[in-house]
Design a protein that fits this description.
Order of helices and strands: HHHHHHHH
Distance between the termini: 28 Å
Helix content: over 70%
Number of helices: 8
Strand content: under 5%
Shape: elongated
Radius of gyration: 18 Å
Largest sheet: none
């Protein structure tokens, strides 16, 4: 079983991002409704914290098994690292909602959803990069963070890269 796991190819950046959006975005949308429902009984910040914990555990498992091709369940280390990125996302969504509450006297449910989902989307893009390059990089073919970082740099459009791949190859002959 270990052999099958180590031989599994990780998906390319585009496919991984599409899977990330499907899994993480789907959980994010469901979470937004769960937060709104739970906020009827609890303060919004507490409701957001509880839903963030549950959705992070579920999303990390889905990302390990499906999004990043880790080939199995997420390890405790991956859960902890993913939780760190989720804490950042929690801060972004909480600050966005706080700003909304300070600037709009009585925002409606639709405006709250738009603000929450927009903040979640921005935080989600940052989380994708962190999860792909750092958290699940150890499970990539060729292993190691250097290989994952090189693959991540190679997936950036050439207009953004400049001479970066040449510099990476010069620093790491294995790249």
């Amino acid at each position: 079983m270990e052999t099958a796991r180590s031989e599994q190819q990780a998906p390319g950046a585009f496919l991984a991002f599409a899977r990330f959006v499907l899994c993480g975005g789907g959980i994010g949308v469901l979470s937004s409704f769960a937060v709104a429902g739970l906020a009827a009984w609890l303060p919004w910040v507490l409701a957001n914290a509880l839903i963030t914990v549950v959705s992070t555990l579920l999303a990390t498992e889905l990302h390990a098994r499906f999004t990043f091709g880790a080939g199995g369940r997420a390890t405790w280390r991956q859960h902890v690292q993913s939780a760190g990125s989720a804490a950042g996302a929690y801060a972004v969504t909480s600050v966005a909602m706080l700003i909304l509450q300070l600037t709009v006297a009585q925002p409606g449910a639709v405006l709250e959803q738009v603000v929450y989902l927009s903040a979640s989307a921005l935080a989600g893009i940052a989380r994708f990069v962190v999860l792909r390059v750092l958290v699940f990089a150890r499970n990539r073919a060729g292993g190691g963070t250097v290989a994952a970082t090189t693959a991540a740099v190679a997936s950036v459009p050439a207009t953004v890269q400049g001479a970066a791949p040449a510099r990476v190859a010069a620093l790491c002959p294995a790249a």
